[in-house]
Amino acid sequence: HNDLPFNLRTLNHNFLKNFTFEDLKNDPVWWNCSTCFTDLKRLLAGKLGAQFWVAYVPCKSQYKDAVEQTLEQIDVIKRLIQKYPDHLQLVTTADGIWEAFRKKKIGSLIGVEGGHSIDSRLAVLRQMYDLGVRYLTLTHACNTPWARASPVDNVSLTSDLNKEHHGGLTEFGKTVVLEMNRLGMLVDLSHVSHQTMIDAISITKSPVIFSHSSAYALCNHHRNVHDDVLVMTAKNGGVVMVNFYSEFVQCNTTRNATVDDVIAHINHIRKVAGVNHVGIGSDYDGVDSMPVGLEDVSKYPHLFERLAQTNEPRWSTEDLKKLAGLNLIRVFKEVELVCI
Amino acid sequence: MEVVREPEKFENTTATTIICNNYLHYHAANQYTVNADRKSACRSLQKTDDLDLIERAVSTADDTITAIGEPYRQAGSPDLAQKLPNGAAAIFQSPSPSGEKGTGTDSDGSDRRRGERAVLELDCKQWLAVCGLLIVAAALGVGVGVPLALELRSSRLLEARLQVVKRILQEVPLVDGHNDLPWNIRKFLHNQLHDFHFSEDLRQQEPWSQSVWSHTDLHRLKQGMVGAQFWSAYVPCGSQYLDSVQLTLEQIDVIRRLVDKYPNQMQLVTTAKGIEEAYHSGRVASLIGVEGGHSLGSSLAVLRMFYQLGARYMTLTHTCNTPWADSSLADDPSDTLPMDFIEHGGLSGFGNLVIREMNRLGMMVDLSHVSVQTMVDALDVTKAPVIFSHSSALALCNSSRNVPDHILRKLAVNGGIVMVSFFNNFLSCTDTATLHDVIAHINHIRAIAGVNHVGLGAGYDGINLTPTGLEDVSRYPMLLAELARDRQWSSSDIKKLAGSNLVRVFREVEKDTYNTFSIQVRDDWSQVGPTEDWISMEDLDGKTYCRYPGT
Questions:
Q1: What is the rounded distance in angstroms from the CA atom of residue B294 to the CA atom of residue B322?
Q2: 8 Å CB contact between A229 and A250
Q3: Tell me, what DSSP letter sits at residue B498?
Q4: How far apart are CA B246 and CA B35, in angstroms?
């Protein structure tokens, strides 16, 4: 999960003409932006093989022009890929990830972040699939008419949200999940409420993902995944792609988060769900602070080096490959094959 | 216009069957000997490359020629009997008033010759008797047989023309520019296709059977020999500034799902080459056209996404101005529609960018529904041929939906095409019209713009008043058969009207053409990237109540 496209919208109004993605070091706006962690130079240093670029539009656009804005974000992702054909390649299948990887390009996939982007219309979901979208995060930080988002679980909130029934998916919400199964689109349960996670995993015919969520047991933020859901995900065959955001990996405000906190989350998920069900979902460009040691997209190798040094648990090369990408590719492949 | 006056050259016109076979074609194969007299007679009637004349093999009683190809069949239907006799190249009269079938046999021919020889051996008195009898018979024949013969002749002539037209439509796909079935599916079925029996006769099914707006099903498309159809992803102007983008996605979705539901009869197509491939595999090539710039929400990104979803033309406006283009209502405001239009005097600066982006993508610019000034502006800006997917000639019916002559002249230079609408109000400017009105419009557009710039865009399922003779999508061959009476419409011209003009335009507009000799609009665009501009707030002029303005 990388939110660069939203930065493109807010900082560049989706203009790519003068966007020096090769190296943003000399761009005063981008270099000084607190939510900006990504450019080609650092992606290459980070040895990134594939990236889900996120077509996100704010919750405030729900019931307004969310669909149109989402199409604009899908468009900017595609134009970015077209602009850098030597480094980026649009990918829409699991095999495509391998193809791009062999050609030493970053396999670039599209995810839509938030059910509000489909305006409760299955036709819009289908057409987005045809445009290349391969996951839909069922909610962002707002409820849709058919799914509850994680803020309803926020015990510290005194807003109306908290007073609502801590619901999950409505019947229509279940229909959305089943249609995604039929299409072969990954169901992403980051951002959704605890009950929505349970409802979705119960109804889905395919493995699910959490594109950028960490472990509730280590940091009890409503964006993180409870252990009971981790167990369900393991049974479901899905994958939890760990979010690096400081506030999700380290709830103790007295100190900064570090790469070791991220490693703790990875290890916890490995312990509860299994090594086949953990992955990487950094959330770069979607947050405003990253842990020490993971300052930007060039730091992935550092994470893997630290993991390789861990003894408890032991991370074999095979395990590291699963974490890096094989688990996600396996899930993607299974999702493509499901027919209902 | 009546076609052939040559009957006067033949002396024996009451009991002679004259055949104009494709004698050159057959003769070249050296399979047949051709009677020299007939050859010269036929030669005077036909041009050697005139397929319709050549193929009009109706009947023969000559045992030296056997008709190959479609045997002539007597139609016998009351409809055909209504048709006026036509001096088509194949002129024949039945050898007897009994109206036999046209395919002669050897025995008939030899009988006639034996009969003729017998006549010459009589003496004078018997001659007089015979002559008297002959005169009486002739009078009877004329009184009874001629009308009957004329009826039979006209019906056989029409049937003959239909056979030729059907032959033509087996060689080139008939391409219709505009059908609004998807909106009917939304209206009647809320886009739910599980109970939609498109392969059955919808005239027997509710609610289609009750609707004057319904003209289309697979069966009638097949009868109409429709090779390719642009299905319209139309959403009403009332959705502008509201949920037009989402609604358009839903209409694109229903078209795709309909095509998926009938894979043996329909095929989604997005290229000119695709039209030909689908056609040769026996499926209706199904293309998508977006009807109305309001569907874009004034976003070029949305335009690009529609293109990626398969839309291959966009009608710049429907019956409302967009923030960047004027519709025909600017030329003819209606009392019943809201008058809060912003007018731009044609296309705004952003409108020019829309055209430019459409050219770059390879999406055809459709100028039906737009104002005359918008037509002028678009024709100035575009680098590719344009279309009118469903419009007729203003000179014959002064509707703001029709195309003025000066635009037709510009269109000829542009290389585009007007696909003639079958809506009565646009044909006759009244509620009633006939097939002949459509022909008049076709001929007018041909006269002003040229035969390379005319096509068919009936607008079935989007109109409630269809011409007599063109009641539904099964009637295209009848239109062409009637057109074929006109000498200026050779078979190659009919092919152009039916579909090859549109295919030519499409090829020229496309990004990748497989025919390297056709004009590539894209040559200039390879270094030009997508247009990133946004419409200005001034253009939107307060119509932003359903937009999130944060970004």
A1: 6
A2: no
A3: I
A4: 69
- Cβ pair B181, B218 in contact under 8 A: no
**A72 and B548: CB-CB below 8 Å?**
no
Element (H, E) at B424: helix B424-427
Amino acid identity at B323: P
Q: For residue A278, give both structure tokens.
A: 């953990």
Q: What length is written for chain B?
A: 551
Distance separating alpha carbons of residues B116 and B47, to the nearest angstrom: 33
What are the backbone dihedrals phi and psi of residue A209, each rounded to the nearest 5 degrees, phi first? Answer: -130, 160
Q: What string of DSSP letters covers A295-319?
A: -SGGGHHHHHHHHHH-TTTT--HHH
Residues of B whose CB is below 8 A from A64 = 546-548
Question: Which uninterrupted H or E stretch holds A68?
Answer: helix A66-83
ipTM of the complex: 0.94
Domains and CATH numbers, chain A: 3-338 (3.20.20.140)
Per the model's pLDDT, the better-predicted residue between B173 and B57 turns out to be B173
DSSP state, B127? Answer: H
Half-sphere exposure of B522 (CA within 13 A, CB side): 17
Beta strands in A5-76 (DSSP E): 50-56
| Token representation of residue A136 | 């839909």
| pLDDT at residue number A83 | 96
Residues 6+ apart with CB under 8 A from B36: none
CB contact A10 to B (< 8 Å): yes
- Tell me which chain B residue has its CA closest to the CA of residue A79: B530
Provide the pLDDT for residue B102: 30
User: What torsion do the CA atoms of A112, A78, A57, A156 make, to the nearest 10 degrees?
Assistant: 50
Comparing CB atoms, the residue among A15, A16, A75 nearest residue B304 is A75
Transcribe A142-199 into DSSP letters: S-BTTB-BGGGG-TT--SHHHHS----B-HHHHHHHHHHHHHTPEEE-TTB-HHHHHH
Residue B148 burial (CB count, 10 A): 16
> Residues 72 to 91 of A: which have CB under 8 A from any B CB?
72, 74-76, 78-79, 82-83
> Do residue A69 and residue B551 have CB atoms under 8 angstroms apart?
yes
A331 near B CB under 8 A: no
Taking the alpha carbons of A167, A171, A172, A173 in that order, is the dihedral positive or negative?
positive
Long-range contacts of B519-526 (CB under 8 A, 24+ apart): B519/B415, B521/B359, B521/B362, B521/B383, B521/B384, B522/B360, B522/B362, B524/B383, B525/B359, B525/B360
pLDDT tens for residues A99-125? 999 999 999 999 999 999 999 999 999
The pLDDT of residue B386 is 97
Helix, strand, coil percent content, chain A, rounded in steps of 5: 45, 15, 40
Measure B245 CA to nearest chain A CA, in Å: 6
- Cβ atoms of residues B485 and B449 within 8 Å: no
The whole-model pTM stands at: 0.81
Residue B299: list chain A partners with CB under 8 A.
68, 71-72
Q: For position B48, what pLDDT does the model report?
A: 30
CB contact under 8 A, A67 and B546: no
Which backbone phi and psi does A136 adopt, to 5 degrees?
-125, 120
Predicted confidence (pLDDT) per residue in B94-139, tens digit: 333 332 443 333 333 333 333 334 444 556 778 788 788 888 877 7
